[in-house]
Each structure stands twice: as C-alpha cells, then as structure tokens.
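This section describes the prediction task in plain terms. A model, or a person checking by hand, is given the sequence of a single protein chain and must write out its three-dimensional structure as a string of tokens. No templates, partner chains or ligands are provided. The sample shown here is typical of the held-out split.
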Amino acid sequence: MREEIDLLNEEVNGLSEAQQKQEEYAENIEKFLNLIQTLNDHKAELTNKVETLTSEKVTTEQEMAECSQKIEQLKQTINSQELSQEDVRRMEREKARIEEQIAKQNSVLEGQSAALKEAQEKWLSIYELLEQRVQEYNGIAKQVELIPNNAKHAKG
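The expected answer:
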C-alpha cells in the first residue's frame, strides 16, 4: 500500500510538473505568437517601404529618361547648327567693324552737336545785337522825330 501511496504521490508530483510545464509552454506559445505578430507588423512596414522606394525608383528612372532625351535633343540641335569657327570669327570681325563705324559716327555727331550749339550761340548773340540796334534806331528816330510819339510801336 505504501508503494501505491508513493506511486500516487509520484503521479501527483509528475502531474504538477506537467501542469507547470504546460503553463510554461502556454506562456512560450503566447510569447511566440506575439513575436510572430511583431515580425508580421515589421514585414508590413518593410513591404510599404519597398513599395514606396520602388515607386520613387520608377519616377526617378522616368525623369532620367526624360533628361537623357532632352540632352540628345540638345545635342542634335547643336550638331545641326550651321555655324563653324570661321563663321564665328567672321561675325566677330563684322562686330568690330560695326563698333568702329558707330564710334566714328558718334564722334561726327558730337562734332555736329558742338557746331550746332556754337551756331545757336552766334545766332543768339546776333539776335540780341539786332534787338539792341533796333532799340537804338527807334530811340534815334524818336529824337529826330521820324516816329511820332503816339505811333503804335513808338515805345519799342
């Protein structure tokens, strides 16, 4: 009987150990499920990042393709131009010649402007002298009584 009691006690001890292990396993399973959920959330974040980066990559590739097309178009435009180095040199010589002509014409214009100003000053001095002479004449004409005092322009 003692043996049976010991056996039953051993079974009870084994049972409590089994329950303890079952609880540990349940906790471990819960931790494992939480870990799986955390990993799934992380995977979803990474998937979103990959999709975003893939979208950005596609956009960037399209922009690069457009830039490459623009560069090729500009290269073709440059290559199709008919200007050579000699054309550029000719245009520079023509520009220098035209600038020289402009400088000459400006000096002629300045000379003519100076002559015009001088002529204006001469005409002004002559006009003033003429006005003075007219007044002197009218004064003398009054003195010798060639012009009556009640004449329209007798007072100058």
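For orientation: The chain has a mean pLDDT of 87.
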